[in-house]
Description:
Blueprint: E1 2-11, E2 14-24, E3 29-33, H1 40-48, E4 55-60, E5 66-69, H2 81-86, H3 90-108, H4 115-134, H5 137-151, H6 167-180, E6 185-189, H7 197-209, E7 213-217, H8 221-227, E8 230-235, E9 238-242, H9 246-281, H10 288-300, E10 327-338, E11 341-352, E12 356-360, H11 367-374, E13 382-387, E14 394-397, H12 411-418, H13 424-432, H14 450-462, E15 468-472, H15 480-491, E16 496-500, H16 504-510, E17 513-518, E18 521-525, H17 529-535
Parallel strand pairs: 3-7, 3-8, 5-6, 6-7, 12-16, 12-17, 14-15, 15-16
Antiparallel strand pairs: 1-2, 1-4, 8-9, 10-11, 10-13, 17-18
Helix pairs in contact: 3-4, 5-6, 9-10
Amino acid sequence: MIRFEGVSKIYLTDFVLKNINWEIKNGEKVGLVGSNGAGKSTQFKILIGDEDQTSGTIIKEGNPKIAHLKQELDCNLNRSVREELESSFEDIQIVDNKLLEIENKMKSLDIKKYSDEFETLVNQLAKYQAKFEALGGYKMRADVDKILPKLGFSIEDADRLVGNFSGGWQMKVALGKIILQKPDLLLLDEPTNHLDLDTIFWLEEYLSSLKIAIIIISHDRYFLDKLCKKIIFIDRGISETYNGNYSFFLEQKSIIEQSKNKAYELQEKEIAIQKKYIDRFRASATRSTQAKSREKQLKKISKIEAPATKSKSPAFHFPECPRSGKSVLTIKNLSHSYEDKILFLDVNLKISSGDKIAILGPNGSGKSSLLKIIMKRISPEIGEVKFGKHNIFTSYYEQNQAEALPPEEKVIDLIYNKCPEWQQKKVRTFLGSFGFQKETVFKFIKQLSGGEKARLALALIIMNPSNFLLLDEPTNHLDIESKENLELAIKNYKGTLLIISHDRYFISKVANRIVEIKDSKLLSYNGNYEYFLEKK
Length: 536
């Protein structure tokens, strides 16, 4: 359907894409993966025509219709669900508005007085009705009614405003608008960001059922494994294609890297031996001919390229902190509501030292509110929340903390202001462990990508030693390498953890206990994520 051939993209003096070669066939589901800044979204922009490639060719067979579901959802919150879905039929909407305009004119016209004008309007009406029918106008409502239950909406929901639904449901509306346009290729950029687990499960099943070609940019490893049978890996502006799911890609990439490293080492060893022989016998009366012959052969060798040194992704650890007592937190008979919704009804929870708890539940169930109540940002209506009596030092990462960073401040100044006693070397080393190296430390925060802001916000939290860590969606916007480093840091963390995340792979790696919010209750599972799924 689409083929990239030697595509490159240069911004000023910076190569984003150097040599991109891949193809997608009808009905294929492909994962586009790579670290933040690798050029994944740039390829989407080139595909939809927002940007042009600097060089190379993009071949499109049969002019396929391409639709793009962006991270920032394109929805009018003041329309009803039905109106928003119908807005995807742009041509039909224009004709429908014209029909309404003609009908209103006919109603207000005195037929006896303006018979000629009325006849003109009748002819116009017939013409636009024929056009409306030809465009599928009468089928439009049926198509919308058909897709509503597939998206999980009831007929009653169709008349509710889009703005009255959560972000997950708004994503369903945005996706529905695209599907109604019947695209040949669907581009999805981080579709699981901010979705709860139930909606992610739904999205996986729904996308699996679609027969169209799909390209997915995602850092959700379970999601990629479930949907994709081909992975395109972008690294340093170059693409590599792997025919298999994400787990297969990781295995194959590791095998290929090991093989390349071994071949390179063997060749370097052989070249060193030959050079030693040439240097030794170049001036020898008996062996100089042999030495020259070997030198000629050496020049003809096709050299194996040196393995690329891996770009450092942030590798960090939590600073040492005094150990807490065994009891870290006790929640007793807690009840709390938000507007007209009861979030918690007479709930109890005990957290002990060393617990690493993942809090699960659909969007709007009260996960973030629970952390805010614990941190005393919100006062509970009924009940009590008590920290343990011995050595409790907390650090709290809020969901939108990365967006609250001061945009006009430089990265390095932010750390200096927090710890003015630190020497420059210590600041640079600390920032380097979060992926801020060389000139990037002098960037203004407003110039940072979403992933860079998330890493910087995490860095600020980690500067303070703590033994009770509360993290609300810390993996949003992080690339896979950064997630892996956060996983490792949490594994080595000696304190207690409360974490909210919709990244199932991440949860499975870090949590030793699950607390699910369901029907205003806290249900505790004393085991990891796999144990929780088994019990469910």
